[in-house]
Amino acid sequence: MIAYVLRRVLATIPVMLVVAVFVFLMLRLSPADPAAIIAGDSATTEQVAEIRSRLGLDQPILSQFVIWFGKLARGDLGESFFFKKSIVELIGERIEPTLSLAFVTIVLAVAIAIPLGVLAAYRQGSWVDRIVMGFSVLGFSVPVFVIGYLLIYLFAIKLGWLPVQGYQRIAQGVGGWLERLILPALTLSVIYVALVARMTRTSLLEVLSEDYIRTARAKGQIELKVLFRHALKNAAVPIVTVVGLGVALLIGGVVVTESVYTIPGLGRLTVDAVLARDYPVIQAVILLFSFVYVLINLLIDLSYTLFDPRIRY
Amino acid sequence: MGMNWKSLAAAAALSIAATGALAQGKTLRIVMHSDLKILDPIWTTAYIVRNHGYMVYDTLFATDADGQIKPQMVDKYDVSADQLTHTMTLRDGLLWHDGAPVTAEDCVASIKRWAAKDAMGQKMMTFVDSIASPDAKTIVIKLKSPTGLVLAGLGKPSSNVPFMMPKRVAETDPNTQISDFTGSGPFMFKRDEWKPGDKTVYVKFDKYKPRAEPPSSLAGGKVVNVDRVEWRAISDQQQAVNALLAGEIDIIEAPTHDLLPLLKADKNVTLYDWNPLGNQYTLRPNATQKPFDNPKVREALWYAFNQKDFLDATIGNPDYYKECKAMFICGTPLETNRGLEDKLTSNFAKARELLKEGGYDGTPIVLLHSTDLAVLTNLAPVAKSLMEKAGFKVDMQSMDWQTVVARRVKKDPANAGGWHAMLTSWVSADILNPVAAAFFNASCDKAPFGWPCDEKMEKLRDDYARATDPAKQKEIAAEVQQRAAEITTHINLGQWYQPGAHRPNVSGWLKAPAPVFWNISLK
């Protein structure tokens, strides 16, 4: 097991290396110039060139890469072109809102989706099943920002129950923290509820036709125990995989959701950095997201051993 | 377990109460036109950084509501009879935010740093023999020859504004961002609460000593009536409007024009034209690229265009725009139509005639089209349509604004990553005279992108810089405009206005070329 984990961790190094090279090249080859953005409308060519030189953007791409990668290897992510802040500090400030949003979204999605999926499988072909599956199709189809605006209109503007936008740090109070996360998490969870509910239903339907389920029923187990103790546990592997991949999908979702709800997280940071062509920040955030993605995949693989004792590494 | 839930509920209730208590101070919550990313108003000309500058720093002089330059940090201002010595005495009681007194030495260092970056400052310095601080309160500027640029420069209302900084800060290389944000303005910047992408926080500087005069635009007494100002970074315009309607913020500096009807319909929102000078749309041709290296071909643009089509397509509502041929802005001392009387009328026959005279060979004009800024998006399609009616072939290339910004500084051939023409918008306060307005600079490679090259224009701009008499300045500005029309440095496509929006609890928002938040009271 430990040898497997070590092998997997070591395997992330070449993956991160490829991501680093790819992101660096994509940015440098794109038609953008952070120096021209910083200099502003009135700047002369000389002034733009001066800024470009200060930022090191006038050097050959290979030299720029060697400098950046050298710093990265020493654990130095560099400094933002714009913010006059270290990237570690910027990411540190932004990580809490994103983690909070991801956590509440996943908890909400799992808490809603699994009972719905189980219910749909248990009542296969009934109107309950059709409603759950209809909702799933809708959840996949409607863009996140449309759901966001609809929820804001209803719960924040019309009913005035929840704030329109913003984020409150957990240290300032759990109540305010949760109040400001409900709408964004609901918005973001719709697609995961759809995904996980569908997967739970399909997976459970397969298990429910197994012999041991019939045996459990024959032994007089109550239906709730049959569903949750016997069937769901054995159907868990594909569900956990989907939940885990959902966390990775969440990365794309937070970019939109954080922008709609003005949450100062890593998603907003990514958007702002891309719009401003803040190369060091974009590079660092994408590397971070890639690392998280790889890590989640590893955790999913390891979690299989919890649900299926036959799986050994 | 029951106890745990009770404890949790109590903690949550306490934290909510604490949050409520925090919010009880008078906090003005504003959504600005963009997020604040850079903190050095000398290092960049970005308007959001200029606005930050007005919060934190003070100026020696300032422009009032009539466009007159008035002393601000300065108490007494004397000019010698030969107009070669300008002596300024600082007001009593001026303090930096760290409590140290503001000295003339600080101001001298600040003027030098500003003048190294700002085009008007650079021009001013060509007249300056020395800047000295003979004592802690006196600044003496000695000139080699008279110029009107000392006052005009030090009272400049828009980017780069000559903000005063402590000497230790002002001695930072002008091409390096400052990292100490001590100012002497009416608000103090809360560096520890600055979260780019979230909010920027300022608190009232209790020891700020306002002038005794009533406020007038950027001049007069800067009296602060709130404890704290928060700039909330809401990038989505619809969300900013939602937040205003829900009372979560007090002011939106610049709501997009398509959302104005929504705001106007709400009885809890007032639209307010805080910047009466507005903005000016402008087309910039690239004078280094064929066929625009030929002035006749560039001149054809004046006859192809009319302002109404551009303004209708972008702003739409005539309440928020004005057709105005004056390149130095209608309603200002230098307003004139000289040289433009028959232009901007979509006289396509005349445009075609000029193209023929200029030997236009049908080379496609690469027109940069910005697609992501609402106030600019529709300009290029209108320009394309009018140019084609005049006989141009147009290759309109669509891209986001930041790509336009990167592309426009490239001198490559238009068909190899360069460009022929692009459209932008100026804040009127930036283009009030021939020295401040960057697009009149025709010093070839030293000019901003577009790089026009014209000795006569440069001589006229020098003449303007030398002139100290307002009547003489007005005459020279008219000649500059006439020359700009002949060589087509750029084309002005009309003035437009950007109202702000505020809730009924806000009063006292001043009209000024930049949004300023002293004088505002909260009910």
3D architecture notes:
The complex is a heterodimer of chains A (313) and B (523). Chain A is mainly α. Chain A folds into two domains: 2-73, no CATH class; 96-307, MetI-like fold (Orthogonal Bundle). Chain A has 13 helices and no strands. Chain A has helices at residues 2-29, 34-39, 45-54, 61-73, 87-122, 127-141, 144-158, 174-208, 211-218, 223-234, 236-260, 266-276, 279-307. In chain A, helix 5 packs across helix 11 (236-260), helix 7 packs across helix 11 and helix 11 (236-260) packs across helix 12 (266-276). The longest helix of chain A is centred in the middle third of the chain and has 36 residues, at 87-122. The radius of gyration of chain A is 24 Å and the shape is globular. Chain A starts with a helix and ends in a 6-residue tail after the last helix. The mean pLDDT of chain A is 87. Chain B is of the alpha+beta class. Chain B folds into two domains: 28-231 and 506-522, Periplasmic binding protein-like II (D-Maltodextrin-Binding Protein, domain 2, 3-Layer(aba) Sandwich), CATH 3.40.190; 279-496, Roll (Dipeptide-binding Protein, domain 3), CATH 3.10.105.10. Chain B has helices at 2-22, 47-56, 104-117, 119-125, 149-154, 167-170, 237-245, 260-264, 295-304, 307-314, 348-357, 374-377, 379-390, 401-408, 455-466, 470-487, and strands at 27-31, 61-63, 69-71, 74-79, 85-90, 128-135, 138-143, 187-189, 199-204, 228-232, 251-252, 270-272, 279-285, 321-322, 365-370, 394-399, 421-427, 491-496, 500-502, 506-507, 521-522. In chain B, the strands form five sheets. Chain B has a seven-stranded mixed sheet. In chain B, strands 14-18-13-17-15-16 form a six-stranded mixed sheet. In chain B, helix 9 packs antiparallel against helix 11, helix 9 crosses helix 13 and helix 15 runs antiparallel to helix 16. Classes of the chains: A mainly alpha (313), B alpha+beta (523). Chains A and B meet through helix 2, helix 3, helix 5, helix 7 and helix 8 of A and helix 1, helix 7 and helix 14 of B.
